[in-house]
Amino acid sequence: MNRHLRLLLTGPPRCGKTTIVRKVVERFPGRAAGFYTREVREKGERVGFEILTLDGNVAWLSHVALPGPHRVGKYGVSLKNLHRVALPALDVAPGIDLVVVDEIGKMECLSPLFVEALERLWAAPVALLLTVAAKGSGYIQRVKEKPGLTLIAVTPANRDELPGRILHLLGH
């Protein structure tokens, strides 16, 4: 197990990044922590995104009906839920072999606390599997330029074989 492996999946929305992460977590033989995001649709329309931690917590990250000052496009963003649910999932407890962060995107990067948690993770002796938006500036761009990472562009041609490749890179 390479505890300093930094895998960063990137690609456009709906290319399969979250599906790859979920398949890796399902087959990963060690202990994993972290979270992924899930698109929520009602009557065929996307209405928001949920945060799902690997230990079973769920909360809205964003929703078209959420009020407040934090917005990305048509979505109100709940930094309170991000801080309450996602951030504790990023604490590296003893025995954790892999931390998953899906995703580093505009909504998540509205939180300086989220960015600080990622910087702590980057320095921690634990393997990381992260997804990042294909487009974006600020921290989204900076994380793709970090030394020591393996940046993998997800495409329709490679997305089915990536879970196995990632598990191999993780030493499993």
- Count of individual beta strands: 9
The CATH topology of the domain at 6-37 and 89-169, please?
Answer: Rossmann fold
Which strand-content bin applies to the residues?
25-35%
The number of helical segments is 5
Strand order of the largest sheet: 5-6-4-3-2-7-8-1-9
The H-level CATH homologous superfamily of the domain at 6-37 and 89-169, spelled out, is P-loop containing nucleotide triphosphate hydrolases
What does this protein structure show overall?
With 172 residues, the chain is an alpha/beta fold. The protein has a domain of 113 residues: P-loop containing nucleotide triphosphate hydrolases (Rossmann fold, 3-Layer(aba) Sandwich). It has five helices and nine strands. A nine-stranded mixed sheet has the order 5-6-4-3-2-7-8-1-9. Helix 1 packs across helix 5. It is globular and about 45 Å long.
SSE layout and pairings?
Blueprint: E1 6-11, H1 17-27, E2 32-42, E3 45-53, E4 58-63, E5 71-72, E6 75-77, H2 79-89, E7 98-104, H3 112-123, E8 127-133, H4 139-144, E9 149-153, H5 162-169
Parallel strand pairs: 1-8, 1-9, 2-7, 7-8
Antiparallel strand pairs: 2-3, 3-4, 4-6, 5-6
Helix pairs in contact: 1-5
What labels describe this entry?
172 residues, alpha/beta, Rossmann fold, 5 helices, 9 strands, 28% helix
Give a short summary of the structure.
The chain is of the alpha/beta class and 172 residues long.
